């Protein structure tokens, strides 16, 4: 899960990004409205956390532009503006959720996970795929009822596949959802992660669709 | 020491009444004087004629020739108050009423002084006196030089002969002046009431501004008051601007503090930094205080909203949309039954804040449904928000509206929305009451002022 964090306060941005990475999110940070708007328009994100009082461009106008361009990524507004009129204005601009500062980090994590899950079309928190199950709210995988230990990269790849189970995800999409914007991506690294995941959850679960990408499937096993 | 009344009305009335009294008194005096001279002159003419007859009857030896002293008709009647006398060294003669001179008229002295270059005997001089019966008489007197010295010729007539027509003329004159005085007084009162009416209207307009029924004083004022109205409106604007500035300042301060506070909270949430959560609770306390004061700063000026008109239905629809997303994980259905044209005389942001807090509270506690109904009852609009949650016991219903009292520690910042909604309702001239909903949950009723007739577009 790759998140765009648009927040101008460097201390808060850094602290929140660290907390989100600890929860396996890939996080790109933008320090002003212009950069944030550009990243949201051009890169692929599972969700965005958007401050409203931003330098150069206000968050509401950034959000409005994304929606006008047809960008449907879930947006969580995270702001000091806590009046209900401001919240209503945020939702009218196209926000999916709204949190006011100060906030509890767990609250942000829970809401982000819920946004990403619902955007992928899952109403309930639990997603099953054969013997594999994913609690999208707690971010935990289980295999045959037992907790599955994963590295951050493995978690990102598997959660991306799990949220779109039985659907082919293009390799380039998968790379975008797993690596942060400034990461130095090795051309084979996704294959390496897929290989490690196959060892953990079974080779048949992840199909390679030649020339297109990968698919998580309940399979026949 | 204060001589003049403090009120403009009193001052103008006092000046007008004093001026009228002085003018009327002067008129009465001058007209009376002219009248008196007029009626006295005819008496004087008769007396002067008699004096002239007597003068011709006095010989060079100072003796009166009675055969030549012909009496004018009035002097023939005895006891009528008419009479004459001749006093000289050669003897005393008299006819008719006997009288004694009492005083000479002041004008007489003055005339004599003024006429110093002429002989004093030039003509008869006036005088006043009384006859034997005590009746006042008017006389004319002249001194005639003879060989034995001056002979004094005096002819007197009763004062009533001139007084009677004077009294007859003065009575209706004074009555007319009195009526004129009353008419002028009444006109002055009317003029003052009419003339000072714009001042009373200005006071009413200013009261309306203070009570929030109007934003400004109407500008269509009389020329003398228009500059005052303009200055007052400028003052009102300045005051409003100052208030808005102060509110923005508080809001900026609160918002400015929230981001570092959020950064602090994020740092504290990192593993090992705040093991027992005490520091996190302190951050939460700071946040609660900030939100409390921000809420108060955000509240519009008390009662300044009677001219406002905020439609309820779209505001609540927007809030339901927003809250549906905020609480997307809770399967709660909110149903609003509100007439599309129903409005309240409340600032739109205040309405959002009150209803938003109450709906948020309902959403946190509802099992599955929230009912929102609104209806106008005369001058107020009641908005009732009921949920089907566990509700509050009678004891907690009172405590729920104590600021900062957290009845339920589950939700973040919960227990805070109710007092904010209550405070805003009261600042807007309304009330918030809590009760039990038909479905058993909490029912919150906001009573807010309805737009007045002049608030309708």
Sum up the structure in keywords.
heterodimer, A: 221 residues, Arc Repressor Mutant, subunit A, five-stranded parallel β-sheet, four-stranded antiparallel β-sheet, globular, B: 457 residues, alpha+beta, Beta-Lactamase, Heat Shock Protein 90, six-stranded antiparallel β-sheet, five-stranded mixed β-sheet, 50% helix, rod-shaped
What does this structure look like?
The complex is a heterodimer of chains A (221) and B (457). Chain A is of the alpha/beta class and 221 residues long. In chain A, 41% of the residues lie in helices and 22% in strands. In chain A, helix 2 runs parallel beside helix 3. The longest helix of chain A is centred in the middle third of the chain and has 15 residues. The two termini of chain A are 28 Å apart. The mean pLDDT of chain A is 89. Chain B has three domains: 159 residues, Beta-Lactamase (2-Layer Sandwich), CATH 3.30.450; 89 residues; 153 residues, Heat Shock Protein 90 (2-Layer Sandwich). Chain B is built from eleven helices and 13 strands. In chain B, the strands form three sheets. In chain B, strands 2-1-6-5-4-3 form a six-stranded antiparallel β-sheet. In chain B, helix 1 packs antiparallel against helix 4. Chain B is rod-shaped, with a radius of gyration of 50 Å. Chains A and B meet through helix 1, helix 4, strand 5 and helix 5 of A and helix 6, helix 7, helix 8 and helix 9 of B.
């Amino acid at each position: 899960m790759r998140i765009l964090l648009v927040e101008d306060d460097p201390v808060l941005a850094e602290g929140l990004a660290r907390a989100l990475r600890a929860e396996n999110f890939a996080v790109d940070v933008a320090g002003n409205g212009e950069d944030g708007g550009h990243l949201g328009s051009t890169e692929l994100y599972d969700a965005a956390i958007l401050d409203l009082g931003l330098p150069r461009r206000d968050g509401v106008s950034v959000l409005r532009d994304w929606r006008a361009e047809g960008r449907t990524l879930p947006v969580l507004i995270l702001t000091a503006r806590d009046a209900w009129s401001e919240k209503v204005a945020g939702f009218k601009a196209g926000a999916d959720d709204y949190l006011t500062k100060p906030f509890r980090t767990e609250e942000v994590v829970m809401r982000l996970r819920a946004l990403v899950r619902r955007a992928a079309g899952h109403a309930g928190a639990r997603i099953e795929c054969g013997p594999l199950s994913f609690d999208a709210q707690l971010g935990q995988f289980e295999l045959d009822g037992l907790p599955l230990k994963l590295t951050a990269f493995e978690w990102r790849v598997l959660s991306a596949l799990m949220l779109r189970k039985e659907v082919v995800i293009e390799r380039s999409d998968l790379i975008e959802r797993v690596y942060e914007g400034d990461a130095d991506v090795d051309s084979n690294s996704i294959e390496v992660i897929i290989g490690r995941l196959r060892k953990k959850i079974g080779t048949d679960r992840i199909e390679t669709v030649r020339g297109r990408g990968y698919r998580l499937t309940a399979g026949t096993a | 020491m204060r001589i003049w009344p403090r009120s403009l009305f009193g001052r103008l009335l006092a000046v007008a009444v004093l001026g009228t009294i002085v003018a009327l008194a002067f008129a009465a005096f001058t007209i009376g004087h002219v009248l008196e001279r007029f009626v006295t002159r005819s008496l004087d003419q008769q007396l002067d004629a008699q004096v002239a007859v007597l003068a011709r009857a006095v010989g060079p030896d100072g003796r009166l020739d009675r055969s030549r002293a012909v009496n004018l008709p009035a002097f023939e009647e005895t006891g009528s108050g008419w009479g004459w006398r001749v006093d000289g060294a050669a003897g005393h003669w008299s006819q008719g009423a006997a009288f004694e001179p009492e005083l000479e008229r002041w004008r007489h002295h003055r005339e004599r002084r003024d006429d110093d270059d002429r002989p004093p005997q030039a003509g008869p001089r006036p005088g006043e006196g009384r006859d034997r019966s005590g009746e006042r008489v008017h006389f004319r007197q002249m001194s005639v030089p003879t060989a034995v010295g001056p002979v004094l010729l005096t002819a007197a007539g009763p004062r009533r002969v001139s007084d009677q027509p004077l009294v007859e003329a003065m009575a209706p004159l004074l009555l007319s002046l009195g009526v004129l005085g009353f008419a002028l007084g009444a006109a002055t009162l009317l003029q003052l009431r009419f003339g000072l009416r714009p001042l009373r209207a200005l006071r009413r307009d200013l009261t309306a501004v203070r009570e929030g029924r109007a934003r400004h004083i109407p500008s269509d004022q009389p020329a003398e008051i228009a500059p005052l109205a303009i200055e007052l409106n400028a003052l009102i604007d300045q005051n409003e601007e100052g208030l808005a500035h102060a509110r923005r300042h508080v809001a900026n301060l609160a918002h400015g503090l929230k981001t570092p506070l959020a950064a602090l909270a994020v740092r504290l949430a990192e593993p090992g930094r705040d093991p027992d959560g005490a520091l996190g609770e302190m951050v939460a306390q700071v946040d609660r205080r900030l939100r409390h004061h921000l809420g108060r700063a955000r509240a519009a000026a008390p009662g300044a909203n009677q001219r406002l008109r905020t439609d309820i239905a779209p505001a609540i629809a927007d809030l339901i949309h927003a809250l549906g997303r905020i609480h997307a994980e809770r399967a709660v259905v909110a149903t609003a039954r509100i007439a599309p044209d129903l409005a309240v005389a409340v600032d739109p942001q205040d309405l959002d804040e009150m209803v938003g807090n109450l709906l948020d509270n309902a959403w946190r506690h509802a099992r599955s449904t929230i009912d929102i109904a609104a209806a106008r009852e005369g001058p107020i609009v009641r908005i009732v928000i009921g949920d089907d949650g566990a509700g509050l016991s009678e004891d907690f219903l009172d405590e729920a509206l104590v600021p900062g009292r957290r009845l339920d520690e589950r939700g973040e910042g919960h227990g805070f929305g109710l007092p904010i909604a209550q405070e805003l309702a009261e600042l807007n001239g309304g009330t918030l009451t809590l009760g039990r909903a038909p479905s058993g949950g909490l029912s919150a009723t906001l009573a807010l002022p309805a737009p007045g007739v002049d608030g309708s577009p």
